[in-house]
User: What shape does this take?
Amino acid sequence: MTPTGIGLRATLLVGTLALAAVPARATDDGAVKDFLLDNGMEVVVIPDHRAPIVTHMVWYKIGSADEPPGKSGIAHFFEHLMFKATTNHAAGEFDRAVAEIGGSNNAFTSYDYTAFHETVPPSALEEMMGFEADRMRNLILTDDVIKTERDVILEERRSRIDSNPQAVLDEEVDATLWQNQPYRIPVIGWMQEMEQLNRPDAKAFYDAYYRPNNAVLVVAGDVDPDAVKAMAERTYGKVARGPDLRPRIRPVEPEQNTKRTVTLTDARVSVPNFSTQWVVPSYHTARPGEAEALDLLAEILGGDNRSRLYQELVVKQGIASEAGAFFQGTMLDATNFTVYGAPRGDTKLADVEAAVDAEIARIVKDGVSDDELERAKTRYVRSMIFARDKQDDMANMYGSTLATGGNVKDVQEWPDRIRKVTADEVKAVAARYLVLDRSTTGYLLPQQQAGN
Amino acid sequence: MTPTGIGLRATLLVGTLALAAVPARATDDGAVKDFLLDNGMEVVVIPDHRAPIVTHMVWYKIGSADEPPGKSGIAHFFEHLMFKATTNHAAGEFDRAVAEIGGSNNAFTSYDYTAFHETVPPSALEEMMGFEADRMRNLILTDDVIKTERDVILEERRSRIDSNPQAVLDEEVDATLWQNQPYRIPVIGWMQEMEQLNRPDAKAFYDAYYRPNNAVLVVAGDVDPDAVKAMAERTYGKVARGPDLRPRIRPVEPEQNTKRTVTLTDARVSVPNFSTQWVVPSYHTARPGEAEALDLLAEILGGDNRSRLYQELVVKQGIASEAGAFFQGTMLDATNFTVYGAPRGDTKLADVEAAVDAEIARIVKDGVSDDELERAKTRYVRSMIFARDKQDDMANMYGSTLATGGNVKDVQEWPDRIRKVTADEVKAVAARYLVLDRSTTGYLLPQQQAGN
Assistant: This one.
């Protein structure tokens, strides 16, 4: 078990791959069931009988964007603290139980949620539920535990962020793109605030958010929904409902009127790169159809090596070693659309950026062809058909959607909504959102190329 | 009475001029007295018998940087609401009372405080205290009052900020310079949050912060301190002490590792300009002597038309229509140091910026001469000697210092601390803080000069 802090780019993979897996063969095995326990805990069961394994995930609707001011890092801190001793189990006991049966487990934190998961044989499912239900309320949060794990997350920040120029730049780009919405704050936290996290902070956070009525249980695998329900009632069902939580209404981003840049020049950088971001709506905040259009825009513009950016810059012009685009749709609040590129050989970064901008201008002016749009949609469908070993992606898809304001129906109807997107709609979102005078660009430059 | 929202640049004038006035002749009239009322209200009396007038100010230690997340603008909202009806006086009655005796009154809001003031004949002082003490606790906050005044502040935002490209740019520069500390949030508030401010928000804010134990009374003028004390006890002394307030500990800025730019291109702009800012310590957060050195650095580099920037760029090279620097020292948390410039005639903005950067590089490398430093100190002293009609500046000086963590002694000893600053100390703060690779620059560009 290595707890991991996951930022916007990492969750992207979860989100997109997972969505692509929607009607995978697995779901042919039986309808997805969802229901509430009496204490308010939501349960989603996704039968998948291809192999005798089960993915068990608990998603807490609490992420870094919900943290109190000045307490950045505390959501991710719990990704660690949850592996410590409870009143019923010593620290490490849960991990050992998983390892003994040949399973795997982990956890991750994002802006909108914190999730814990195990993949085990179905016979061990109820034991997992017992462990998870126990640590939901019975953690022993002593000053010693806080201090020890705080040292761990501080070291994690040093090694993952502070010693990595790209990560340092990304943090400051995020805080420049977002000027009010809390996605501006790094998931792992700011050092000077992490250093101050203490036991009262942790206790207050745990008591407020680690409650069945703030959690979603997702079970995907070789299980029977009724049996899962009975097990969930015997384990999670015993945990008392917590106080009602306030709606997750966070500060909203003001309109952006400027072009912003953030430049990090560092001797450790060998190849420069840039990325340009825009604030765009997420699936949760968008007008109907806009988020789907943004997904297809990202796919066509820079989704993979069949995309316009890759084909034009990497293959045809040969000026870029990489170029692409992505849209992070599965967020509770407004999200980001990003394009990026890096030069190949002696090409100047500015020339790569100009070529990326030209592709954006072209799509804004001329839109996409029907044929191109169909192929993009087909790529999604194909990835569904050939989906294999995607049990955890399916669980991720339901979990991340339900933890960011969506429901089971949103997940299931998503492929149909994608199919309905028109070429005009893709052009419209490009024109509406990809405006360079209202963008935020990060530049990572080698020391000697500072003037590039 | 026209309530005003005052931002960082406006408060600068208050702070600097006021500090310059410290040992003005006025204080020769008698020692400054300060004391606490039983309910915790601090009182400062500055005798000044040059003319039969008195400046009466109440400073609340509550500014925009203390606002709850998502409630930007509520501190400034109270600058307006405080002029509405109370249980004892109809709306407008206070204003009329001031006008009838030939006085003047106003209010202002900043990041760290909100202040209300009247200038009247000494015979009216107790009446003013009565009115101020009344509205400290007896405002009638109905939905109607909230709605009406909210429309006023929304219109104020539209006219002052949204219709002014420089103000729009300044807001986004502030939110780019500050990535965590709440000075990133505009004092007037963000439109989408101001629109949502409601009666429960206002009531909670008023009850938490408009209390005698969160206020500083400053009386400067033709008064006797003992008489002022008796009046204050008869008026403010009747207001019950409120619950203890939590220490004003706000999110702290992380270290900046990047060079950031913010560019607004607008058809309404005729002459471009730029300003570059750095995060630096304030008088309240600095190591001993650093804030004083920053004050003198700003004075020497760009304080007025005898400064290096003005002399070099405007007078000698003739490339700039304006160029200067300022340091906003009177803040509760870390503050900003700013240089700025605008081209003259056909000069390119980039050339002006390069010339400003060259002056910074020169001061970082070679420091300042003893002679230059002495002249800068003398300019302060001279402005003290010739200070006239500065009664309100003196009151501002004490009020702003006391509302940002300082005390009466800090104000009184400030000139001596300035005199002690050495040329090496000025050079040291320039080298430590004015690093271009860790700066934030705003560019205001005319439409046709976008490529400048």
Summary: The first strand of chain B starts at residue 4 and ends at 5. The longest helix of chain B spans residues 143-162.
